């Protein structure tokens, strides 16, 4: 029983990590169709933001809460810079975008190496986030509980923005029909830029959160980028809720497979499941329904 | 434009993105051997008042984090040897090449150092795959490689000197220590590649012969970042100790998870063989304090040679730098080569290897002796505990240098291991 609960929590927790890493991508890739290979490096930038903030504010708890909005800002601004300088010249050219952003990713990694040094740096977790919380049946690490809460908060926040604000309506309008949105007077340029800001900012937040679990180094982002793309593709392009379900499903699957086999085999099995799933449902869990006749 | 078509394009883009992400991120870990050595007459030029040596370390790519420190230690050794009059009266002229964390690049650059730079010997390499890729090059050209990192054993090339530990100087002593402490069961955690799997094979054979129970054996892919399941398994198994052969970033995630799960160094110590002084700050002292390591050198080793080494290193590279086992082994390797050359009174490979047996050097780790048969060196094994000062302090020592035994022929329980 305890093992089952433990593994279920491990799966949900892994799912929340995947979701945090993939949420921004669900927006930039899923909604705008931009393949941004540098998304992982925006995550890394968020992690280094946490490191820099901790250098200035020594209290780990305070610095964590300062880092989260600051990480959002850093990631977001980097995203806007990338969008404004390179990506806007190559919408509708996915292959070129892929290569260009991959190059940007490498440059950013080396930049991190030059600024912060090649070895990993340490970001301390606040006292109340190390150790575990007793949930009666079992104990769960509090850092993982925090990330689970943070990822849910990020999804809810994003959902509220997309559904209730004028900006959200504009974003959804542009995603569903760019030409028509433009015709009714929505500035698709500025909408694109804001979408990219939010998506990249979410990567920064993911970076801050990931310092609680893993290493903070130049290659941090590359560890997550493949899984993040998998989540978005399996979830269905253009739908945030698909990514949420896909992230938690993949997390629970990985944890279950890993418990009964090994970490390497589990990874293979998860890939197999995704391949089979996409054979049956190539559009992912959800897809944008339209009345288009073509 | 139609949304249907948009979606079709997006889906194609999606599969393209995932494939590309996997291919591109896999680039860093591609491993394939390349034998490129052609037998050629040595072109080493010893006529002038200097002689060339090659340093071949990864200065870029994922391994740069570790290999750069080895490169620094080698530079220091060359500087000191030159200040002291050189080797056979000749100044060392260092040619540095970047292995770029790619075994194929190591093989290629080794060939370049040997045949176009005409170096007398090459120092470097870190991963076993880089060494295995270079081996045929050095054997083909009959040149010399000094390899400074602990490794999985089961190798001895006439053209390579192994100045790091082989298994009976690191893993076996760690097991001896655990047994002495009354450890009845261990859990094995490692990265999924050759070193941890070979090490664990040895550990299992030892455990079987010594009545230690193996409670579990888990491997994580290199770069694995989520250790909650593995930690759950470790916790549920309740072993007396954990033997950790994880490599790289995975250690950070593992130790954070281990601590968060409420596991402690007191209740279930982790013995690591890949964490040295350099890695401690990145993993975080809070997560590591009290855990054990097994090496042959720590910055805190109390010998006059080490005091001088640490002082010189900090003077050259800064006070905040630390020294570690592979750095010390690299530093020592240059002095061992110098002693071999001076005994042989020749830079020629055959003369040097003939003179190698019995060469000793008062290294920072203590006196080491070259074994002329298997080209490894006798080293003292030290079990250390990571303390609050960010350094590793010796808690147990083998007392005397252990003769290298890469094929574990001297251990009855290890019979049949080298064959498999």
TrEMBL record, chain A:
Classification via InterPro entries: ABC_transp_permease, ABC_UrtB_bac, BCAA_transport_permease
GO MF terms held by the record: transmembrane transporter activity
Its membrane topology: Multi-pass membrane protein
Chief place of localization: membrane
Keyword Transport set for record: yes
Cellular localisation: Cell membrane
Keywords: Amino-acid transport, Cell membrane, Membrane, Transmembrane, Transmembrane helix, Transport
Listed CDD domains: TM_PBP1_LivH_like
Any GO BP annotation: amino acid transport
Pfam families per the UniProt record, alphabetical: BPD_transp_2
Gene Ontology cellular component terms for the protein in this record: plasma membrane
Transmembrane segments: 61-82, 143-162, 194-216, 228-253, 265-282
Entry annotated with the keyword ATP-binding: no
Superkingdom of the organism of origin: Bacteria
Family annotation (PANTHER family): ABC TRANSPORTER PERMEASE PROTEIN (PTHR11795:SF447), BRANCHED-CHAIN AMINO ACID TRANSPORT SYSTEM PERMEASE PROTEIN LIVH (PTHR11795)
NCBIfam families listed in its UniProt record: urea_trans_UrtB
Family: Belongs to the binding-protein-dependent transport system permease family. LivHM subfamily.
Annotated protein name in UniProt: Urea ABC transporter permease subunit UrtB
């Amino acid at each position: 029983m305890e093992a089952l609960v433990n593994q279920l929590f491990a799966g949900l927790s892994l799912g929340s990590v995947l979701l945090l890493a993939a949420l921004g991508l669900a927006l930039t890739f899923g909604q705008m169709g931009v393949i941004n290979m540098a998304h992982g490096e925006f995550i890394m930038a968020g992690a280094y933001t946490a490191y820099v903030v901790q250098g200035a504010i020594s209290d780990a708890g305070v610095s964590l809460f300062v880092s989260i909005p600051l990480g959002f800002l850093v990631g977001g601004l980097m995203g806007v810079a990338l969008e404004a300088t390179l990506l806007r010249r190559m919408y509708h050219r996915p292959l070129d975008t892929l290569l260009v952003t991959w190059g940007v990713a490498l440059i950013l990694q080396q930049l991190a190496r030059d600024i912060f040094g090649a070895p990993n740096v340490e970001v301390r977790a606040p006292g109340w986030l190390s150790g575990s919380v007793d949930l009666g049946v079992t104990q769960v690490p509090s850092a993982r509980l925090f990330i689970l809460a943070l990822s849910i908060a990020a999804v809810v926040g994003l959902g509220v923005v997309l559904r209730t604000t004028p900006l959200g309506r504009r974003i959804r309008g542009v995603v569903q029909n760019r030409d028509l949105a433009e015709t009714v007077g929505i500035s698709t340029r500025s909408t694109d830029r804001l979408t990219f800001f939010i998506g990249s900012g979410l990567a920064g937040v993911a970076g801050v959160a990931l310092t609680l679990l893993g290493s903070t180094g130049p290659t941090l982002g590359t560890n997550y980028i493949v899984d993040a793309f998998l989540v978005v593709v399996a979830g269905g392009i253009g739908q945030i809720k698909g990514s949420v379900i896909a992230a938690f499903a993949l997390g629970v699957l990985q944890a279950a497979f890993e418990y009964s086999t090994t970490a390497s085999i589990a990874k293979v099995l998860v890939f197999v499941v995704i391949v089979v799933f996409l054979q049956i449902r190539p559009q992912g869990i959800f897809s944008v329904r339209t009345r288009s006749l073509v | 434009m139609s949304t249907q078509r948009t979606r079709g394009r997006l889906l194609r883009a999606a599969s393209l993105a995932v494939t590309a992400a996997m291919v591109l991120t896999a680039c860093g870990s591609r491993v394939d051997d390349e034998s490129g050595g052609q037998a050629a007459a040595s072109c080493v030029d010893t006529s002038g008042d200097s002689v060339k040596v090659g340093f071949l370390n990864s200065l870029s790519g994922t391994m740069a984090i570790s290999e750069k420190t080895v490169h620094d230690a080698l530079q220091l050794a060359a500087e000191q040897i030159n200040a002291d009059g050189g080797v056979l009266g000749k100044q060392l002229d260092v040619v540095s090449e970047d292995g770029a964390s790619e075994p194929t690049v190591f093989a290629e650059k080794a060939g370049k150092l040997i045949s176009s730079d005409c170096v007398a010997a090459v120092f470097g390499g870190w991963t076993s795959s880089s060494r295995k890729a270079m081996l045929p090059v050095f054997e083909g050209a009959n040149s010399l490689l000094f390899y400074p990192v602990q490794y999985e054993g089961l190798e001895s090339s006439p053209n390579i000197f192994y100045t790091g530990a082989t298994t009976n100087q690191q893993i076996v002593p760690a097991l001896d220590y655990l047994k002495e402490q009354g450890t009845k069961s261990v859990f094995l955690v490692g990265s999924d590649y050759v070193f941890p799997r070979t090490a664990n094979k040895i550990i299992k054979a030892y455990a079987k012969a010594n009545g230690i129970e193996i409670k579990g054996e888990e491997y994580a892919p290199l770069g694995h970042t989520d250790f909650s399941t593995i930690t759950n398994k470790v916790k549920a198994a309740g072993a007396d100790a954990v033997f950790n052969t994880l490599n790289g970033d995975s250690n950070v995630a593992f130790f954070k998870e281990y601590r968060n799960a409420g596991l402690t160094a007191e209740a279930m110590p982790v013995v690591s063989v890949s964490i040295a002084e350099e890695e401690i700050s990145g993993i975080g002292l809070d997560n590591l304090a009290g855990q054990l390591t097994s090496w042959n050198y720590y910055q805190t080793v109390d010998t006059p040679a080490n005091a001088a080494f640490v002082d010189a290193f900090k003077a050259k590279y800064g006070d905040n730098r630390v020294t570690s086992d592979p750095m010390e082994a690299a530093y020592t390797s240059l002095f061992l080569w110098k002693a071999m050359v001076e005994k042989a009174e020749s830079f020629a490979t055959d003369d040097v290897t003939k003179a190698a047996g019995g060469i000793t050097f008062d290294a920072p780790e203590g006196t080491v002796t070259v074994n002329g048969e298997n080209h490894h060196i006798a080293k003292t094994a030290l079990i250390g505990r990571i303390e609050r000062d960010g350094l590793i302090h010796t808690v147990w020592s083998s007392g005397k240098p252990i003769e290298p035994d890469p094929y574990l022929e001297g251990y009855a329980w290890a019979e049949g291991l080298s064959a498999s």
